[in-house]
Amino acid sequence: MDAATILEIRPALSHFLHEFDGCFGRRTTRRYLDVYVTGQLSDLDRKSVEPLADAAGVPPRSLQEFLSLFKWDEAAMRDRLQRWVAARHGDPNSVGVIDETSFAKKGDQTACVQRQHCGCLGKLENCVVSVHLGYAAGDFHTLLDGELFLPEETWDQNRTRCRAAGIPDDVVYRPKWKIALEQVRRALGNGVRFSWLTFDEGYGAKPAFLRELAGWGQNYVAEIPVSLVGWTAPPPVLYRDHARDKACTAGTPPRGRPRRLPRLKVKHTPACEVRDLLTYSPVVRRIPWQRYRVKEGTKGPFVEEAKCVPLWIKDERGLPDGPHPLLIARNVLKPDEVKFFLSNAPLDTPVETLLLVAFSRWHVERLFEDSKTELGLDHFEVRRYPAITRHLLLTCVSHLFLAEFVQQRKKRRRTDGLPGPNRHSAAGAAVAARRTLFAADRRAHRGAIDVNATAQCSRRPQPPQTNAAAIMGHRNTATRPAHLSVAEKVAL
User: Can you tell me the distance from the alpha carbon of 441 to that of 285, in angstroms, rounded to the nearest whole number?
Assistant: First the structure.
């Protein structure tokens, strides 16, 4: 934002940042929060510590110490941010998105850096990776959490190197799915509710992750790898060893070790990889493809062909677990690119619902893009672990304010009589009054998580959609989302 825009929003920004006053023990430390967030919202080309400090007229060394040395409670700041979102942006149709992003770095001194797959470059490169949790509700979306991934061999097994980089001894290696699981648990404990969670195959390939979410009663639509195996019909399971029971009845002592029960019968249909179902499964082949307009892109509508079948997957004992809806989708223009999604929703969940959730990951991709291009998420030049984690958190705070600012500006435009996002709807029409694509189900109330949690909704959730009226004009239409374009809506 230019100087005039920042002066215009200064009262709202000051009110917003006062929410985090209790995270700082000293007033002299607290004032650097204003400096950092205002600098990230400004129109500086580079938003590392030195340009931010120079623009605010403070010593760069002081801002560096604010990130790395000054004492303040970043965990309390994260909790207050999430409670703010829960209180002001709670929505029965919300979607949580889990994803990771990377930051290319040179050298080997930056905390958690190693040569690994760098998503921003699309190749193996020296980089830092962080796991994030995003929140989307209607035309609003923001980042709720972010945490660095600590590599096992190059960092966790070398505690001397960790201490030199400022990594506490209690921070140890955890797989990315465990980091994401903890982030979801924290958000639920702070009152945030997700009607659905969605994530890519890096997390969908972890059965323990899916089982934990299902145990919480959390609905999800997970992209899965094509090598995942399962059955389209449940195989027979043996719960009693009848031959052994018969021998005991006849008075003959059984021989050998007793077999593990329950187990699959000897004669059963072997599990099949999901990529082979389209070719070899008669159940899948009988279901016709149906076309759905998922969203409107910059190059036109994004159309997918999809079909849905029940799938039984293997649990931790190798037994069938299910049935789960298996969503198979392919792009109309690229039919060879087939994606598979697994859900724990009821089997009668409409395909439109599963598609909406499955393709809601554009929200977190947009969040990363806006945070990097507008707020300097990848501009950090600090190396120590506390400074990087605080930078990730402060960027979440800046993005939350910016997302609310953009949302309020949109509302003012619609209130002034300007056209809304729906071409044939009156400006400012209530979304709740429109007909929904999703009916209620008979699912039981989900269990609460943590002490601050409340009972979950017992209705099947509806993913966020901003153009519901326009959608209903097409029988097989998923959604046409309105992107939160910071670059277009705000002159930064």
Answer: 28
* Type and span of the H or E element at 301: strand 300-314
Asked if residue 81 is part of any domain, the answer here is no
Residue 237 has pLDDT above 60, yes or no: yes
Number of helices (H) and strands (E) in the chain: give both, helices first.
Answer: 17, 14
**pTM of the full predicted structure?**
0.80
3-state class of 271 per DSSP?
coil
**What is the domain extent for residue 267?**
224-361
Residue type, 148: L
Tokens of residue 404, six digits: 């609310």
Which tens digit of pLDDT belongs to each residue from 358-384? 999 999 999 999 999 999 999 999 999
Residue 154 lies in a domain: no
CA distance 287 to 305: 12
Strand ranges (E), 77-219: 95-104, 114-118, 123-137, 140-148, 196-199
- Mean pLDDT, range 412-421, rounded to an integer: 52
Number of domains in the chain: 1
For residue 343, being part of any structural domain is answered with: yes
Q: Supply the mean pLDDT for the chain.
A: 81
